[in-house]
Amino acid sequence: MTYFVGFGPFGEHTVNASWVAVQELKKLGLGSEVDLHVYEVPVEYQTVQSLVPSLWKQYHPLLVVHVGVSGMATTVTLEKCGRNHGYKGLDNSSFCPDSQCCIVGGPDCIDSVIDMESVCKRVTASGLGVAVSVSKDAGRYLCDFTYYTSLYLSHGRSAFIHVPPLGKPYSGEDLGRALKAIVQEMLELLDQAEEKIHCQQHFH
After folding, report:
1. So what's the pLDDT on residue 192?
2. What sign does the CA torsion over 16, 21, 27, 29 have?
3. How would residue 32 be classed by pLDDT, with cut points 50, 70 and 90?
4. Could you name the active-site residues (predicted)?
5. In this structure, are residues 70 and 139 in contact, taking their beta carbons and an 8 Å threshold?
6. What is the pLDDT of residues 36-45, one digit of tens each?
7. 8 A C-beta contact, residue 81 and residue 156
8. Who has the most CB within 10 Å: 17, 49, 164, 183?
9. What is the spatial distance between Cα 198 and Cα 182, in angstroms, rounded to a whole number?
10. What span, in angstroms and rounded, lies between the C-alpha atoms of 66 and 176?
11. Distance of CA 78 to CAs 93, 98, 112, 131, 197, Å?
């Protein structure tokens, strides 16, 4: 079970490429095995703080993949980790957390359990026609804030993908295809990890 989160409009992004890409992915689907739930998240710290935990409770997903737009991105970017501190930018309702952090007392940084380098290599080798890269800094705004919150709740069973704005250079359809390929690789890696754990338990 997976669900996807794409962000709503903010700043100059009146049409958010991440939400367009997620809707394209929904059209394509991930095969009959995967139950795909899609949510659009307002660009607001307090909404993220209540919505993300409620989605985890409701669905107990195998993996959560968040998708956000980055005006600086020119590739589809896989984020390796979320960071707890440094949230000074005001959100769509002109709010930022007093503590400037996601989870008071939480670790500074949480890595995804998914090996993003491996996902990147596999998707690149598949000849998708969309450039994919890996990053260690999700930007200390709502994307990073959401990712850290999700990683904290899921013990690392989350991923974050940044997409470039539409037409710079990819269309919504291109981004949807890229998301499908990326998430299929992520699920494959999770599957392999589960099997390995299962085998180890079996032999002990």
Report:
1. 86
2. negative
3. confident
4. 79, 143
5. yes
6. 888 888 889 9
7. no
8. 17
9. 24
10. 13
11. 28, 29, 10, 11, 25
Residue type, 125: A
Amino acid at 86: G
Q: Say whether 13 sits in a helix, a strand or coil.
A: strand
Return the number of other C-beta atoms located less than 10 Å from residue 188's C-beta: 13
Is 66 in contact with 117 (CB distance < 8 Å)?
A: no
Q: Class of the 2-203 domain? A: alpha beta
Question: What type of residue is 119?
Answer: V
3-state helix, strand, coil in the chain (%, to 5): 40, 20, 40
pTM equals 0.92
10-24, 80-94, 169-183: least confidently modelled range: 10-24
Task: Give the CA count within 13 Å in the CB-facing half-sphere of 14.
Answer: 0
Q: What is the number of residues in the chain?
A: 204
Average confidence (pLDDT) over 160-176 = 95
Q: Which two tokens stand for residue 85?
A: 């501190």
CA distance 167 to 180: 19
What pLDDT is stored for residue 7 in this prediction? Answer: 66
- The strand ranges marked E within the chain are 2-7, 36-41, 63-69, 76-79, 81-83, 109-111, 132-135, 158-163
